[in-house]
Amino acid sequence: MPDLLATLRAIVGDAGCLSRPEELLVYECDGLTLHSGWPAAVVLPRSRSEVQRVVRTCREHGVAFVPRGAGTGLSGGALADAGVVIECSRMNRIHEVNTVDRYAVVEPGVVNADLSAVTAAAGLFYAPDPSSQQVCTIGGNIAENSGGPHTLKYGTTTNHVLALELVLPDGSVVELGSPTGWAPGYDLVGAFVGSEGTLGIVTCATVKLEAIPERIETLLAVFPDVVTACRGVGEIIQAGLVPAALEIIDRRTIAAVEASVYRAGLPQDAGAVLIIELDGSAVVLADQVARVREITTREGATRVEVARDDAERQRFWRARKGAFGAMGRLAPDLYVHDAVVPRVKLPEVIEKICAIGDRYELTLSNVFHAGDGNLHPNISFDRRNPEELARVVAAGREILELCVEAGGVITGEHGIGSEKRDFMGLVFDEADLAAMLRLRDCFNPDGVCNPGKIFPTTRFCVESNPKARGYARVPIG
Amino acid sequence: MPDLLATLRAIVGDAGCLSRPEELLVYECDGLTLHSGWPAAVVLPRSRSEVQRVVRTCREHGVAFVPRGAGTGLSGGALADAGVVIECSRMNRIHEVNTVDRYAVVEPGVVNADLSAVTAAAGLFYAPDPSSQQVCTIGGNIAENSGGPHTLKYGTTTNHVLALELVLPDGSVVELGSPTGWAPGYDLVGAFVGSEGTLGIVTCATVKLEAIPERIETLLAVFPDVVTACRGVGEIIQAGLVPAALEIIDRRTIAAVEASVYRAGLPQDAGAVLIIELDGSAVVLADQVARVREITTREGATRVEVARDDAERQRFWRARKGAFGAMGRLAPDLYVHDAVVPRVKLPEVIEKICAIGDRYELTLSNVFHAGDGNLHPNISFDRRNPEELARVVAAGREILELCVEAGGVITGEHGIGSEKRDFMGLVFDEADLAAMLRLRDCFNPDGVCNPGKIFPTTRFCVESNPKARGYARVPIG
């Protein structure tokens, strides 16, 4: 359908419509390397009105469309197999920063870290901080309900979104929520955050800003092994402390980081390090630092360092946030897993996860939000080796089953996407999934907006709407 | 339809099914005295299975049903005109209190304050604390997304619900969310909280528990007038403090309280008092108390008292939480209003609200969550006087319009119910309301579950589903 491309070009301009193979290659996958899909076209709208017109055009041509931010997602949520990718990076204006009522009004393409950089002068920051925050966008964060190391204290994206303007899959525009954080009627803002691009496309968001804490203290506790580090995390929480972050980095990850540009001087003989960040009033932090030092030492830490200045603090965080990049040194491919267990189960679950990795003879490393019980077992592999890939997939399944059995869930912050749709049945029964499908069907009844995501395609055959099939596969262009 | 009553009696037992006029009279209204409705019957189920069977029976007979907690709601949400009231007070078991992962699993009829009383021994409490917390139930709190004086620091009910088991309007059962607070797929828990009983009936809820703070300091600052007190609130927040509560009580309310059993020794010559509650580490509170004292004095407080012990703290709170009861002394009827404005607009809006009350020659008093910008202008009146009632309604409308014009919304924590459904158009346009109706229609397509609530019936005629009418009016019994 060449007239589809021509119409899209007329809407977004020639420079805003990509269709050559070398251009589309960039959009073949997101941060999940296991799945890929070849879009028919990529459009980069500059305004809500262009998004609306693109959506209506796709609809008229019977072609699926998929919203996309920076493509750093880890569950295949931004893949559009034969559909049109609506990439929001050109919608990157910050419309307003309100320092009295503490909110910002932003377009979806604003880069996460850029917002905090802009508001810092007013003593404010945007709290959700995924490890990809230097490049990922607020729109993508909203779609995936992204978390980050500071989720423990500050919550995930959903706790920071006050209002949304969206283009729905039928091309209509709605405004939901309110900058005051109070809104009558149904909390549709909450339902749209984390809906992985299946209910519409965010064109403007009002997000909360937080006061930069008076003081931040960052500690690094060195443990003989990852299980002991997990016990230390449990004791810190049990003591009634609520650190801003509690992050564990295991031995294999330390080795990868220390061999990379993110090198931070972490002790390579350690079984694991635990980063503890405390923030708040200076007067209370001195006491809390002493308590954390005492608890971690009692629980087996062989050394506890306190960052002496901001440079040292940045060094600890560089190691943590650069860990996934550093793993590129271990193998060509990396499968970043994501699951949550009740915090109290962490020590036993992490031990079993390591055993699963060993049993499948895989290179499994761990770097994770221990305070949230949010695990990231990472498997380094080479997908060109089908036998190894099969082991990666089998181990992944066992890890998820183990976490669910421990009372946990199959994703914390990376979403379901295409990656885990067939595991939804581990957590929800058919009635629960049918309730979610009712929501999808009332905004996206024909599945034209980001098809093939979240809901199972096999085993739990609960696609309630017979029209919800096939759209993504209509060939165009 | 005598067979409807017979079937209901067979499900819930004779003692659990009320249909005599003197029994139904109790259910004629909720805390909103402006609206009333006469139910056909009231059932008091003891289990999820009974709720399911009641719902299916109502459906078979084409009769509307309305979930109800303790009936303390303030927007008419629990009224069932000619329908069946499903009253959940007999489902009042606490199934589990998990002190490690800090949550409780409760039935909907558990009284709010009872939960904190049970968990206190473990050093935990349930944070949302509506003024009616001695009698209101968790199920009703979930339906209305209730707030309370401590919402400023702790958030509303939606921030404390981890998982829900619900009977949907079609009689099916779903379980949503997870005790870990993480759940894949759409955040339907968020959408159900605050849906005012229109999307289903909660039969079990998993709610977060918080650690009881190490120390609480409660201050009472005496101001010459309510506008100055509002300025003091703004300055406290601007200073970067986040008190647990910031509550204003105005002169008329003080007089009513001091004449009542809630008498607390408040200064009757004050224009307003501001209760400031601070909680957290003892080491940080001393400094915060000093700062609050300094700020309020600078802003015009003529006296600042600090509660010397828990008895004195309870005395301050007795005045605040007993205020609505005390207003019973001023007139037979009380219209408790509820609106939110950006905090920065509080001084100018409160002044204009008082002027509206004066212009309509009404007895208007204010006792409100100033820290949240959540106003409660209360109008004392006698509804037997139609001319006075007309002035009450007209003043109410002006107050809402004023708040919306100031960038606010028409309800903070009392919901829309039947009271404000025709004001939804002040905040949302037809497309926004249509989006909400889509959600209602996918769970409650024929409107049989709590009809006539939330959505406008006049002017904004957006009832999307032609079947969504008439159900409530089918006569039975």
Number of strands of chain A: 20
The share of residues in extended strands of chain A comes to 15-25%
Strand order in the sheet with the most strands of chain A: 15-12-14-13-18-20-16
Count the DSSP helices of chain A.
15
Given as residue ranges, the uncertain stretches of chain A (5+ residues, pLDDT < 50) are 459-477
Query: Strand count, sense and closure of the main sheet of chain A?
Result: 7 strands, antiparallel
Oligomer: homodimer
Percent helix among the residues of chain A?
25-40%
Give the averaged pLDDT of chain A, no decimals.
93
- Shape, principal axes of CA atoms of chain A: globular
How would you describe this structure to a colleague?
Two copies of one chain form a homodimer. With 477 residues, chain A is of the alpha+beta class. Helices cover 32% and strands 20% of the residues of chain A. Chain A has helices at residues 2-12, 21-24, 48-60, 112-119, 138-144, 151-154, 188-192, 226-238, 251-258, 282-298, 310-321, 323-326, 346-359, 386-405, 430-443, and strands spanning 17-18, 41-43, 65-68, 84-87, 94-98, 103-106, 124-125, 161-167, 173-177, 201-208, 210-211, 215-223, 245-250, 272-280, 303-306, 333-336, 339-340, 363-369, 374-375, 377-381. In chain A, the strands form five sheets. The first copy, chain A, has a seven-stranded antiparallel sheet with strand order 15-12-14-13-18-20-16, with helices on both faces. The longest helix of chain A is centred in the C-terminal third of the chain and has 20 residues, at 386-405. The radius of gyration of chain A is 22 Å and the shape is globular. Mean pLDDT of chain A is 93; it is low at 459-477. At the A-B interface, β9, α7, α10 and α15 of A face β9, α7, α10 and α15 of B.
